[in-house]
Amino acid sequence: MDATQQxxxxxxxxxxxxxxREALTEAGIVLPSLGMDxxxxxxNLVNLGRVRADVALRLAEAIRRGCA
Length: 68
Known about the structure:
By secondary structure, this protein is mainly alpha-helical. It is 43% helix and 6% strand. It is built from two helices and two strands. The protein has helices at 13-26, 53-67, and strands at residues 35-36, 46-47. Strands 1-2 form a two-stranded antiparallel ribbon. The model has no long low-confidence stretch (mean pLDDT 85).
């Protein structure tokens, strides 16, 4: 990711989680463990969690479609 694509420091993890969850829902994908990382609140980390292989493959396909 280059400097022009970096997420602004003002973006908080909660906003990122909500935005990602909405986008994934539109793509028919659910990440059950998606949430803020409570162990590092100052870093604004998002925990994507563990997913089944079929969900990971659907996520990969959705990303590929979006990049095409």
